[in-house]
Amino acid sequence: MKKCILLANGNAPGKKLILFLQKKGYEYLICADGGANHARRLNLCPDIIMGDLDSILTETLKYYSSRTKIIKIKRQSDTDVEKCLKFAINNKFEECVLLGVIGDRLDHSFCNLGIVLKFSDKIKIKLVSEKSVLSIEKGEVKMNTLKGEIISLYAFDSKTFITSSGLKYPLKKSILPFGIKESTSNVALGNKVFLKIIGGSIFVIRDINVVKKNGLF
Questions:
Q1: Which CATH superfamily includes the segment(s) 3-130?
Q2: What does the alpha-carbon distance between residue 13 and residue 21 come to, in Å, rounded to a whole number?
Q3: Quick one: which of 46, 85, 176, 189 is 20 to 30 A from 10 by CA?
């Protein structure tokens, strides 16, 4: 299975996280424009740098010019993160972890959460930011969990129904429309949580350190 990391220009991840992901098979590193600045500070060599290149520092561009494939795409009809995801999909990557896509601009962060939804039917995406890992789930889902682990669930409309097993606050054909109702800080009762999601997709957010430490990624 082909897996990749997409590193963008938001809040930078730690190098330990990237090394952890690489050991999990996410070996191919794609930098979206200014994400290359983070890669250089972390002493990483991207496999490819892609975007309109308006955020990458001149010294970073020069540094990677002989080390990495750099593709400039001028079009403004999609974001640099979207350009990189389209590259991953076209090159048959099946899974992608997004890093650096949440930052100090709320519009960019909100846009990137929407991008996870937009591309979820084409590639399996996880988003890691600070202490959290977000995945998008649909259908019947079985998660390995740690007893007492915090798990939060978010849906987007009143047509998506969620039934759960193994959570402290159970859901039974419940709807969690964004801005109306949510299941924030639910709790795993044991080492398995089952979800049945009908009619759409949901975000599942967990603690990345719990997930990593207990081999749940």
A1: Thiamin pyrophosphokinase, catalytic domain (3.40.50.10240)
A2: 12
A3: 176
Per-residue pLDDT of the chain (217 residues; tens, 9 = 90+): 899 999 999 999 999 999 999 999 999 999 999 999 999 999 999 999 999 999 999 999 999 999 999 999 988 889 999 999 999 999 999 999 999 999 989 999 999 999 999 999 999 999 999 999 999 999 999 999 999 999 999 999 999 999 999 999 999 999 999 999 999 999 999 999 999 999 999 999 999 999 998 787 7
Q: What is the DSSP string of 120-151?
A: TTTSEEEEEETTEEEEEEEEEEEEE--TT-EE
Instruction: Provide φ and ψ at 205, rounded to 5°.
Output: -120, 130
3-state SS assignment for residue 92: coil
Q: 135-213: same fold as 3-130?
A: no
